[in-house]
Design brief:
This protein is an all-beta fold. It has strands at residues 6-16, 23-33, 41-53, 56-67, 80-88, 93-99. The chain has one domain. It is 0% helix and 62% strand. Strand 3 and strand 4 form a beta hairpin. The mean pLDDT is 91.
Length: 101
């Protein structure tokens, strides 16, 4: 993220919608820098909608971030992001987040 290597730990739940094959998902997580115990964190909450195309799940939605430091992750404080994320049955996944200005 903006040249900072982070780990993202996520907890989420998914609820199938009654019509259209959509899946509602909501979650929360924490971004952590790689510095170990002295690293920084930023938290987020988010919501999205997912659909399957074959064996691939694609989620799109928004996240709301909060950072409590003035360091490398300070740019995440009070931003809204939009995201897309794809994962397949083999465990391959990729995602992107854009700041909504």
């Amino acid at each position: 993220m903006r040249g900072v290597e982070v780990t993202n730990i996520v907890t989420y739940s998914s609820i199938p919608r009654e019509q259209g094959g959509a899946i509602y998902a909501e979650g929360k997580g924490v971004f952590m820098t790689k510095e170990g115990n002295g690293g920084e964190t930023a938290t987020w909450t988010g919501q999205g909608i997912a659909h399957y195309s074959g064996q691939t799940r694609r989620d799109v939605g928004s996240i709301f971030c909060r950072a409590s430091s003035n360091g490398k992750l300070a740019f995440l404080n009070n931003i809204v992001g939009v995201f897309e994320y794809e994962a397949d049955e083999s465990g391959t996944s990729r995602g992107k987040i854009w700041e909504w200005k």
